Amino acid sequence: MTTRVAVLVGSLRADSVNRRLAEMLRDQAPEGVELHLVDGLGDLPFYNEEIDTDDAASAVLALREAVASADRVLAVTPEYNGTMPAVLNNALDWLSRPYGAGAIVGKPFGVIGTTPTPYGGKWAHADAARSAGIAGARVVESVVVSQPGVEVDVLTDPEVRERLLDALRLLVEAEPAPVAA
Ligand SMILES: Cc1cc2nc3c(=O)[nH]c(=O)nc-3n(C[C@H](O)[C@H](O)[C@H](O)COP(=O)(O)O)c2cc1C
């Protein structure tokens, strides 16, 4: 059986270090694990209940479908001004609705990422985990990894790679939340 992991990348930069880490995990994922990087987060309109209708923007429908069809959700993100980048926050808002039945509800959720500081983006990661939990995801606390990008090249360091692959394995092993009757 294949476990599908939807990956939300919090940076829109073409040369994003976090995107490249997500691509590394996709390319080196364990057997039976497929990572799908969800494109188009930058095309999402800002969340607004007035446009959250049956004919919502195609980027919204694509995001919801990508997450609904996944078994797990992994955010890979830097930190902006002490929290998660707006593009990721906005994606989580879209995934949180309809209330109680959003595409992310019940899905095991992890968040990892790096910034070029000794903290590695830990505020962004804590905020993303809290937000996803409130949105209904099942946050896997052991899959919150804030990798400092100082004194190490996070893209080539074997220990960093193993740390992130371990986090991915833990996310895959996590049980989804039981669906309410
Ligand atoms: C608007 C902005 C705000 C930032 N704020 C923080 C911050 O609060 N903490 C931090 O560790 N890095 C911060 N950074 C630095 C980013 O972590 C760094 O640019 C990182 O490499 C971006 O990730 P990426 O390579 O995946 O795009 C900020 C960068 C930008 C552009």
From TrEMBL:
One of its GO terms (molecular function) is oxidoreductase activity. Residues 3-145 form the NADPH-dependent FMN reductase-like domain. InterPro entries: Flavoprotein-like_sf, FMN_Rdtase-like_dom, NAD(P)H-dep_reductase. GO terms for cellular component: cytosol. PANTHER family: CHROMATE REDUCTASE (PTHR30543), NAD(P)H-DEPENDENT FMN REDUCTASE LOT6 (PTHR30543:SF21). This is NAD(P)H-dependent FMN reductase.
